[in-house]
Design a protein that fits this description.
143 residues; alpha/beta; Rossmann fold; five-stranded parallel β-sheet; 5 strands; elongated
């Protein structure tokens, strides 16, 4: 199974190169050039991990993160920052982002963070499924 990644970044060349690098390593990648487009894609596409630029014109990364977490709370978000301060990335983590990376980053570090974020999302989903199964079984024994 391929890990599904949404990359949201306003720098088209960077976005295209990063998407190609991830696809060449077996990831399924969708791209968005701004926060609104990314949130719209998230409504229509199942993804596991979002790689989100912090500093974008219009809706910034923090506002986009807030919408992502409201829409799909289990999707893990990695904040990407080249210009914004580390404090902004830390604020993103306080709001539910999985981690952050400084631009430019090495492929190995990004891939490692994506895989770790995917594992965390999968573990959350498994705990939710197990809790639901337990709830159903307990309800059946009470009948």
């Amino acid at each position: 199974m391929k890990i599904r990644v949404l990359i949201i970044d306003d720098e088209k060349e960077f976005l295209d190169v990063l998407a190609e690098r991830l696809e060449n390593r077996g990831f399924s990648v969708v791209k968005a050039l701004d926060g609104d487009e990314g949130v719209g894609m998230l409504r229509d596409t199942d993804v596991d991990v979002v790689v989100l630029d912090v500093l974008m014109p219009g809706k910034d990364g923090i506002s986009t993160l807030r919408e992502i977490k409201t829409l799909k709370p289990l999707v893990e978000v990695i904040m990407f920052t080249g210009h914004a301060t580390v404090e902004t990335a830390v604020k993103g983590m306080e709001m539910g982002a999985f981690d952050y990376l400084m631009k430019p980053t090495e492929n190995r570090e990004l891939i490692e963070k994506i895989v770790n974020a995917y594992v965390r999302k999968s573990e959350h989903e498994m705990r939710i499924r197990n809790a639901e199964i337990k709830r159903i079984l307990l309800a059946q024994t009470e009948e």
